[in-house]
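Hey, resending since the last one bounced:
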Amino acid sequence: MKQKLITCFKVFVTMFLLSSCSDDDIDLTSSKSFSVYGLSYDIESSVIWHADNNFVANTKEYVYLDRYTDTEGNEVEDEILGFSLDGSTTQVGYYIVSLYGEGISYSEDLNSAVGKGALITIHFSSENFDELEEGIYEYNVSKEANTFTAYSSSQYDFNTTIEQEIGNASQITQGQIQVVKNDEEYEFKLNCKTSTGSELTGTYLGSCTRVDIKSKISVNHLEEVKMDAVFDTLKTITTTFWGAVFESELEDIQAPAVFHSATSGVMSIRDAMRLDDLSKRKIELALCYNRETNSILFKSPIELRSNMWRGMGFNPDVQFPCHTTFDVSPSSFTIDDFDSLNSSEDFSFDVEDNVSEIPVDSELPKIILFETGNGLKGAIKILEITPVAEEESYDWMGSLVEAETNPVATFELKVPIVSITTKLK
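The structure tokens again:
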């Protein structure tokens, strides 16, 4: 399986990373050629790679009002600006069209292209899931229907390593491509510009080899995930040093209480605060602890700050913009339903807005469904909740430290493996 995934990744990367510039001038053929940087190149063959569907999620602005009393006793109301899902996500067909010049061909045995020569790779988002739809496609990175992104190379070598080609990408950044289908033949008419401003034009009329590269594994199943629930108060610690006892309190931003979906990993709040703005959008789950009711609850990251202890000036920086909807213990979704989630099509369930606390001593397992502001649906099966406890350890000076530990939720998490692009309405 590992080798198969590596092979699939290499196919995708070789289609994305393309080089440019050549002094070789190839004669222009009107129905099967392209021109760029003032030079023309014949197109000998074409391949249509049918990949997994793209998903486009419409988002809207979401404002969370964080009301609290500051350290001086003043009533404060802060607006935390973020985003939430605006309706359901839409699917579009994903097709990669490769136009190969002399010297490059598709190898059925290797399920990849081989050789060296000129090429253009076009990534189409089509309204049709089963066929590349006819029509005019506009350059746009949104991946919405009837858009494309593309790359070109005057002399790409499939024998070179990925590292050798990284610095030579020639990206198409403007233009239109017309797609016409006639029986088993396709016609592609290109009128584009590259990132350097050079005109790229061309036409290909002919048959296309069709290759299916859709994933066989479509669910990311994470087991034994552990998240600490962050306190809404200070944690207490007692230190014994040379017979003297010192009591103090501890802030909690080092708790691994948030989940970053792009890395499929748990992060501490401190580390998540250091991320750039784009990465912070991928913080989609947060786990909090209510000391008064001895319960945990999954919360929207945009609401995390209001569920933490306030003090020492760090809270205003705890801002993660994604608003996630949770449905705790949904009546129509069972443990068997969770275990049966094996493909992206299984995630067609609706997620009701039902955030509720889960007592630490609850009967487990329990199911939680969620839908993030980035359009990702998922399911959690809580396996174990470890209650608040005291942890004993010796520091480097030999003093005995007794510190509260956070309650820890251990769970399985399933999300579909899909490519989702967000668009702000």
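The first helix runs from residue 2 to 16.

Sorry for the duplicate.
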